[in-house]
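Q: Structure tokens for this one, please.
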Amino acid sequence: MKLEQNDLLPLFSNTNIPDIFFTEYLPEANGDFIKVYLYVLFLSKYDKDIKLNDLCKKLGLSLKIVQDAIKYWEDQNVIIKKNTGYVFNNLQEIELYNLYKPKVALSAEQIQKSTESQKRAKTIECINNRFFSGLMPTAWYPDIELWFKKYGFDDEVMIALFAYCFDKSALHKNYVQTVADAWAKNSIKSYNDLDLYYEKHEQINKIANMIIKKLGLSRQLSQYEYSYVEKWIIDFNFNFDIIEIALKRTTSKVNPSFDYIDKLLTDWYDRGFKTIDQIQKFLLDIKQKNKDIKQLEKTTNYQNYSQRNYDNLNSLYANQKK
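A: Here is the predicted structure, written as tokens:
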């Protein structure tokens, strides 16, 4: 792999890195990939061939990591492979082209100044100043415009989206996109929708903490357990009083699981139960039928009574006292 050079000795030379690298490329890149880029950029000033194995030894990296790093920077169009080696692209020229390209494709209607576009510009500038200290990478601008169009968020929701990710110390495009997808799936478009969403999740968190306390758990719920709670509250529209009935029925279980609790609540939901009275009456009927079957077996000495597995609920409701 051949790299170009100048005549300066390392002691008196400098390696220039444009600021655009720090704003556009560094935040998204793997640390080892950055290490490879910086060192190869430094070596590009010296006219000599360098072998990948020597580069690996110098940087203390495996051959695969170095190869992956070079492939990564190729994909980012930072370097271009030639027959004799690699050449570094001008990052500032790339960025200038990216900024110019979408503008020439805009129609006269799109570039016309309007109240909406001016408000949108103010929103993006607010995001820039509030969450990026005025140094938001230019690549974020078209992404924000895309999210506005894709999700139909109003300006307040878009600002709230960035505030949420900023508070989570996860202001990365992939994370912002993930949160935006989740909000969109919950039909969030206006700030009022977002308020209702937060209110709903506050209720879920409250009930989740009550479940932890009732089950005597010394930990937070796992992601899968929490998804069960969301299902019971959002999909089934059950309140904690109904959920607690299912929790009480785990007292006879050695290792009660959320899967077991979910089977109970799902059965009640499938039966159309909406109130505590309906569920308690159903459980009393189950208990009475089990009692009648046991009495019949005892008096007739018949152990394989055909009605014992009525409704396929024997295993679910067997030996329950609550």
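A few notes: The CA atoms of residues 204 and 230 lie 6 Å apart. The longest helix spans residues 191-215.
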